[in-house]
Write a structure and sequence with these properties.
Two copies of one chain form a homodimer. With 96 residues, chain A is mainly beta. Chain A has a two-stranded antiparallel ribbon with strand order 1-2. In chain A, strands 4-5 form a two-stranded antiparallel ribbon. Chain A contains one helix and five strands, in the order ββββαβ. The first copy, chain A, has a domain of 41 residues: Ribosomal Protein L9, domain 1. Chains A and B meet through β1, β2, β3, α1 and β5 of A and β1, β2, β3, α1 and β5 of B. β5 of chain A pairs parallel with β3 of chain B, so a sheet runs across the interface.
Chain lengths: 96, 96
């Protein structure tokens, strides 16, 4: 799982008094778990004439197996986490 | 913070023996902390003729104050989390 625990402040220290402990977790999460991790920054450059037509659907959830294109993986991510992310769609005029 | 703790399994239960407790946290993180959270899915549709010229820089980190455009906020996110996300750039031909 691609997240980093920045600090775990726990109230575990001396809890003879209470049966339950409170654990405060501050997570600072990476949003890209696995795509091109050897690159310092994953930026993609596309020329407008090279865009897939009539629709170019680009992933913004970092879970597509066809990244940078969307393969629908955002649906699973949203379901699992309650998130609401989705793709960017560039529409080209269709031929007449 | 936009993450969901799915389960916190803690070894806190009976720890008279040990001074330190192990807390296993499985976090399932939302990647969009705050953008258009009232929408079930944030998809954006752009017609190719409406793309900003000569470069359209689109956010994929969900932290831009100009979303769906990139405002450079990915730099802070990457620094804070060790992540490596960046924008999608659509380049239009420049006028001659
Ligand atoms: S697969 Fe990532 S936005 Fe659709
Ligand atoms: S601000 Fe989000 S990718 Fe640049």
């Amino acid at each position: 799982m691609a997240y980093t625990l920045r600090s775990v402040s726990s109230a575990v220290s001396s809890t003879r008094a209470s049966r339950f402990s409170t654990v405060a977790v501050r997570a600072s999460a990476q949003i890209n778990p696995s795509i091109r991790k050897s690159e310092e920054k994953v930026a993609d450059f596309v020329k407008v004439e090279d865009l897939p037509k009539p629709k170019a659907v680009y992933c913004r959830c970092w879970r597509s197996s066809k990244f940078p294109m969307c393969d629908g993986a955002h649906v699973k991510h949203n379901k699992e986490t309650g998130d609401n992310v989705g793709p960017l769609v560039i529409e080209s005029p269709t031929a007449k």
